[in-house]
Amino acid sequence: MRTLAYATATAAAVAVSLVLAPSAVATAPGDNGTVKIHDATTGEELRKNEPHVCTFYLDAFGFDAGQQVDWHIEAWAPTADVKGETVKTGSLTLDAEGHGRSDDLSLPDGHYKLFWNFDGENGSAKHKVFWTDCEDDTEPGATTPSGSASATPSDAVEPTSSASPGEAAPAASSSPSAQGAAGDLAETGNGAPVGILSTAAAALLATGGYLVFRRRKSASGQS
């Protein structure tokens, strides 16, 4: 009976140790906390990483009180000229709540990796990869890359024309002979009006016919 009770107690102790072991490892002194990349305009209370930033800072929380931290940032593929080249370093002491933040930092646009080393860490340093991307805003009316301002529609050269916009170009002026078609008589090659010549010809024919008639009448009266 004693043997059974002893075996039961031993099994219970082993079970409790197995249950508590992961928790003990997770809360081992010196290897707690996390670090995030934050945009300079983001509050320190945010516990979310921001992998795309311009001006930024390193935000740590949940570490042991007063821990000493050394960090460095390396240029990273695909934008690094030399992958792993250290481009920025720093250190800080965390407060009583295991929190701390770096000063605001800036780097040329590209891809980088943060390495976070601290007292009591287990294994490799904590790390984060991130991008910096500071796009320049183009102001309206800014000059083009060649240095000259882009031309506005009013700067374009308009075709030379005597007509005002929206009006048809005036038709070619008519000659005096063309204007005669609107009411004046047409002219012959010598400049005399055709109508006058026609009238004169008709009068001559009438006069000739009358003279012939008179001559025949006189001749019939004498016979």
What is the CATH superfamily label of the domain at 34-132? Macroglobulin (MG2) domain
How far is the first residue's CA from the last residue's CA? 194 Å
* Arithmetic mean of pLDDT: 71
- β-strand amount: 15-25%
CATH class of the domain at 34-132: Mainly Beta
Number of strands: 8
Q: Give the helix/strand class.
A: alpha+beta
For the sheet with most strands, the description reads: 5 strands, mixed
Could you tell me the CATH topology label of the domain at 34-132: Immunoglobulin-like
* Low-pLDDT sequence parts: 18-27, 137-192
Radius of gyration: 55 Å
Basic shape? rod-shaped
Question: Tally the helices: what do you get?
Answer: 3
* CATH-level-2 architecture of the domain at 34-132: Sandwich
Portion of residues in helices? 25-40%
